Amino acid sequence: MTEPDGADLEQLYAEHYRAILRYVVRRIGDADEAHDVTADVFLTALRRRTDLPQDRPLPWLYRVAANVLADRRRSRQRSAAAYQRAGNDLVTRTGPAADERLEWSDELAGTLAALRTLSAADQEVLMLAGWEELRGADLATALGCSRAAAAVRLHRARARLKTAQAQYDDRTQRPQERSGSTVVRTAESKTQGERS
Questions:
Q1: Domain housing 161
Q2: Which ranges carry the RNA polymerase sigma factor 70 region 4 type domain (predicted)?
Q3: Rounded to 5°, angle at Cα 57 from 48 and 146
C-alpha cells in the first residue's frame, strides 16, 4: 500500500469528517466529546496512514472510531474505579445521561430501550447497518470480519432486536403497531399479504 501524502489526508478529512462525527455522536450523545473523539480518529489515521485503504477508507475509519471509543470507555471505567477506591465524591456527582437529556418520540424510545438490552456487538452491527448505512464488504471491514460473518452477525442481531422489542412492548403494554419495529412489522404484513 502506498503512503498517502498530505493532500490525500486533507481530502480524506474533508470527505469523511462529518460521517465520523455523526457515527461518534450517535454512540456517546455529547457533541463536545464527539469532536475530540473524531479528532483522535483522524490523528490515528495520520499515524497509521500506511494501513489506510485507498479505495474505501470510510469503513476503516469507522473501525478506528470504534476502537477509540472503546479505549475511552475503558479509560473512564478505570478512572471511576480509581475514584471509588479513593472514596472520592466526584463519582456521585454525575449529570443526567445523554439519552435522558433528549426528548425522543415514543417509538424511538422503545427501539432504543430494546437496542440497549442487546450486547455491545449486536448494537454495533445494527448501528453500522442502520445509521451508517454500511452493507456487504464495507460492513465487514468496519466490523473487522469476513463478509459472510458480517451478514450472519447482522441477521442474528436483527432477530435479537425484534425479540427485545416484543419483550419491551409486552412489559410496557404498548400496542404492537406503535412499537419501534413498525417498519419491520409493516414489511412482514406486506410480505404475508403477497403470499396469500
A1: 103-190
A2: 112-161
A3: 95
